[in-house]
Amino acid sequence: MSRHRMRRDARRMRRSGVEPVMVMTDGVQFGPIAIVVIGTWLWRYRSELAPVALASCAEIAAVVLHIAHPTWWAGILAAAAVAAWLVALFGHMVGLTWAPERAYAAALVLLVGGWVAAGTALGPGTPPLPALMIIGGAICAVPWWAHRRRRARVRVERTLAAWPEIAHAVGLAGSRIQSAVVDLWGYRARVALARGQTVEDAMTKLPALESALGTRRGAARIQPIPEKANRLELRVIETDPHADAITWPGPSITSIAEPVELGVFEDGSPVRVSLLRRHALVGGVAGAGKSGGMNVIMGNLSACPDVIVWGIDLKRGMELLPWASCLDRLATTPKEAAALLRDAVTILDGRAEMLAMRGLRVWEPTPDAPALVILVDEYAELVDDAPAAIGAADSIARRGRAPATTLLVATQRPSQKAMGHGAVRSQMDVRIGFRVRERRDTDLILGQGMHKAGWHADRLDAPGKFLLSAPEHDIPRRARAYLLTDQIVQDTTTRHAERRPALDPVSLSALNDATTRTHTVVPASVEPTGRHVRKDAPQKADEALWDVLTAAPDEGATLSDLIAATGMSRPTVYRRLGQLEADGRIHQVSRGRWRARGDDPA
Ligand SMILES: Nc1ncnc2c1ncn2[C@@H]1O[C@H](COP(=O)(O)OP(=O)(O)OP(=O)(O)O)[C@@H](O)[C@H]1O
Fold first, then answer.
1. This prediction's pTM
2. For the domain with range 534-602, which CATH number is right: 3.20.20.30, 1.10.10.10, 1.10.1670.40, 1.10.260.40?
3. In 36-68, which positions are buried (b, 16+ CB within 10 angstroms) versus exposed (e)?
4. pLDDT tens, position by position, 477-512
5. Mean pLDDT across 194-201
6. Quick one: pLDDT at residue 8?
7. Does 285 appear as a known binding residue?
8. What is the 3-state secondary structure (H, E, C) of 236-276?
9. According to the annotation, is 287 in a ligand binding site?
10. Tell me, which fold does domain 150-237 have in CATH?
11. 192: pLDDT strictly greater than 90
12. Is position 299 annotated in a ligand binding site?
């Protein structure tokens, strides 16, 4: 039977719903079939076989070079060294984003190049080169075979290679995969629909699609691509992004004008929200992750040279002290908090006046004219301990947006009482709701009627999970905040502390004018701790440091005591302690504790 006729018969059988079966007869030539089968197999396992292919290429190259140009070995070795150096330095440009990946690739280039050079000079069959190739090759292949992202990519490629059959089985015959990207949690594929198919059609096929792709139930999502009615994005989540704590990947922004990345949604997409000229409320029961959420925001804001952050932490600075070196000012007592908020209103007024004079509508933050964000950890404490400050907070909440002087408030349960019966809660543009105990508490944090509308913060089941309500987030989607360990906080503050901006001249002159107008001498205990409002701050801080060290008990003063008493940053306290220790005026009693030497003359 001719091949043409066989194909025609097969087509006819398919049309009639019968799958053709290949029957081997004596006349069939096995050679071409074997080649096709082996070729298909090699192509299918090309990723796993890459080390074998590389070793074969090296072997062939060494044979050819040894015969034709045995003296080239030195040049080959030099080229391999240069190539390895280039891979190590610029590998991230070709997708080797992770440093160990670059190190592996560079080492491999050097080893293979070195082996080819040796093979060129001596001949690839000269011992110990064959043994080196087999044993070294096997060892070098292990990281490649074990690489999680490579395996995931191959698995996805194989799944999507079967798309024509999958599409046929679920009723989307004729659709095509245009591209696919593998990420940490699964993969996304862009699908071009066949003529007449719609995204809505595809959405109704989701359960069938999950079955055909072999995923777990609910793992696949379909999203339309706004520009094209016949395109969609298929998202498959293979690993639940919320199963474990997600380590903070580092700051996602360098300007407050960019949206801050707080964590990831259940589908693995990043949670981004803009904080520019917006007030934010963070709520949830104790242990739900509010401080963790504030840490993510702080980590991002501290990376922005166009925002100054002031902090109020009446829990004796427990939450914000680790960030002290990146905070322009930190209040840990009710009096300091009242002074801080009063100064913030002064700045707000000064900025508003300047905007009005220049006919400008809003304050555009720049490193020379930074936005001012006031972080308040546990607002209810402020209401209880510094009720006089609530008027100032209200004023900032109502008028602070245009002059970029905004509040970021955390509290467990933002009832009217806890919020001081003021305007603060109603003025919050961004609401971040961590787990609450009772249903109605959802409405307290996220807004009236939100629980009914499907925002169930009471059902969040792990610390760090939250719901986000903001102008650009109006549907309830569970998210999980990134987690910053103490070590990450410490590293981040060390990195960012030196790059913090200073208050702008408009704000500074508003503060100076206010001091001159009132003619009041601010008592030391009320004096604000910001580095831009105290000209004699360094001297006073040194005096305070010395006072604490001399008054310290036998077991010494802790680093937190010293930071709290001086308002100095952690690195500055360390520097001062180093100087004093070198001068022989203090000694380290134990790890993290210091005190003045009894015989110090000062
Ligand atoms: N994003 C997160 N991912 C995983 N675990 C988290 C996350 N955030 C917080 N946690 C865990 O929950 C614990 C409590 O978190 P956190 O201190 O932020 O809660 P909180 O709401 O601020 O509590 P409190 O009101 O008592 O200060 C942390 O010690 C941490 O182990």
1. 0.62
2. 1.10.10.10
3. eeeeeeeeeeebeeebeebbeebbebbeebbee
4. 899 999 999 999 999 999 998 889 989 999 998 888
5. 91
6. 57
7. yes
8. EECCCCCCCCEECCCCCCCCCCCCEEEEEECCCCEEEECCC
9. yes
10. Threonyl-tRNA Synthetase; Chain A, domain 2 (3.30.980)
11. yes
12. no
The residue extents of the domains of the chain are 50-120, 150-237, 246-499, 534-602
Q: How far is the CA of 465 from the centre of ligand 1 (A)?
A: 10
Whole-number Å distance, alpha carbon 462 to ligand 1 midpoint, is 9
**Ligand 1 atom nearest to 482, measured from its CA:** 1
* pLDDT for residue 428: 93
Q: Is 351 in the pocket of ligand 1 (CB under 6 A)?
A: no
Residue 562 has pLDDT above 80, yes or no: yes
Handedness of CA 503, 506, 512, 517 (dihedral sign): negative
Other C-beta atoms lying within 10 Å of the C-beta of residue 127 = 8
What CATH architecture does domain 246-499 belong to?
3-Layer(aba) Sandwich (3.40)
> How many percent of the chain have pLDDT more than 70?
89
46 alpha carbon – ligand 1 mean position (Å): 45
Look up residue 114 and give its two tokens: 């070195």
Q: Which residues are within 8 A (CB) of 458 and not within 5 positions of it... i.e. 6 or more apart?
A: 435, 436, 437, 438, 439, 441, 442, 451
Task: Give the confidence band of 459 by pLDDT, cuts at 50, 70, 90.
Answer: confident
Q: DSSP alpha helices (H): ranges in 498-592?
A: 505-518, 537-551, 559-566, 570-582
- Cα-trace Rg, the chain: 33
User: Does this complex have an ipTM over 0.90?
Assistant: yes
For ligand 1, is residue 292 a contact (CB within 6 Å)? yes
Q: Ligand 1 pocket check: which of 291, 319, 379, 435 to mutate, most ligand atoms within 8 Å of Cβ?
A: 291
pLDDT value at position 517? Answer: 63
Q: Which ligand 1 atom sits nearest the alpha carbon of residue 284? A: 21
User: Which helix (DSSP H) or strand (DSSP E) does residue 500 occupy?
Assistant: none
- φ, ψ dihedrals at 365, nearest 5°: -65, 135
Pick the residue whose CA is nearest to atom 2 on ligand 1.
464
**Which residue is closest in CA terms to ligand 1's atom 29?**
287
Ligand 1 center–CA 463 separation, angstroms? 6
> Is the pLDDT assigned to residue 422 strictly greater than 90?
no
Interval 361-387: pLDDT, tens: 999 999 999 999 999 998 988 888 888
